[in-house]
Amino acid sequence: ILNVEQSPQSLHVQEGDSTNFTCSFPSSNxxxxxxxxxxxxxxxxxxxxxxxxxxxxxxxRISATLNTKEGYSYLYIKGSQPEDSATYLCAFAAYSSAxxxxxxxxTRLSIRP
Amino acid sequence: GAVVSQHPSRVICKSGTSVKIECRSLDxxxxxxxxxxxxxxxxxxxxxxxxxxxxxTYEQGVEKDKFLIxxxxxxxxxxxxxxxxxEDSSFYICSATNRGASNQxxxxxxxTRLSIL
Lengths: 113, 117
Hints:
The structure holds 2 protein chains of 2 kinds.
Chain A: E1 5-7, E2 10-14, E3 19-24, E4 30-38, E5 45-50, E6 56-59, E7 62-67, E8 72-77, E9 86-94, E10 102-103, E11 107-112
Parallel strand pairs in A: 2-11
Antiparallel strand pairs in A: 1-3, 3-8, 4-5, 4-9, 6-7, 7-8, 9-10, 9-11
Chain B: E1 4-7, E2 10-13, E3 19-25, E4 32-38, E5 44-51, E6 57-58, E7 67-73, E8 76-81, E9 90-97, E10 107-108, E11 112-116
Parallel strand pairs in B: 2-11
Antiparallel strand pairs in B: 1-3, 3-8, 4-5, 4-9, 5-6, 7-8, 9-10, 9-11
């Protein structure tokens, strides 16, 4: 059974502060790691898909890093804004699992104005 | 781009009713669509993967006869919950990709909240 874990489960951050959270996944049979942002009453939105060890991707104030050898990815948000409040999901794709991805439980981020 | 529409957004019906949920890709051809279920405070659990023109691949523990999936065209997949019972009450959400590979992002619908009385 593939286990994808995210921590922390929830996070409260003051507006303007930077924050980060973690996704842990199996280090063997790695193919890809996805990050999604899921705002309340909206559909999950793809942020990044990362495939190479050492990958760093950036989208505005949000960036992510990938370590496939040790099985973790960090998502960073710089200068948090109220619109960053959402649940952030990561998902792992194994090399042998065709097209499917396995989701973690998410980190719920709340930004205090 | 990459818009996925899911309908209906909310269903409340009596036990024993069959419910059909539609998932449409509006501006791209979805070779592969996925159906997920989310239990309260849990992650998205993959129910099945559907490829256009072929039978869906169900995950272990998901009843094929209970959750019928049809992917008859490159823009439409449907999930029918047959003879629904209260334990089928849940949040169901679909996603689609245009290349069907797990290194491509999935594009999600808004989800369907199903409540069986």
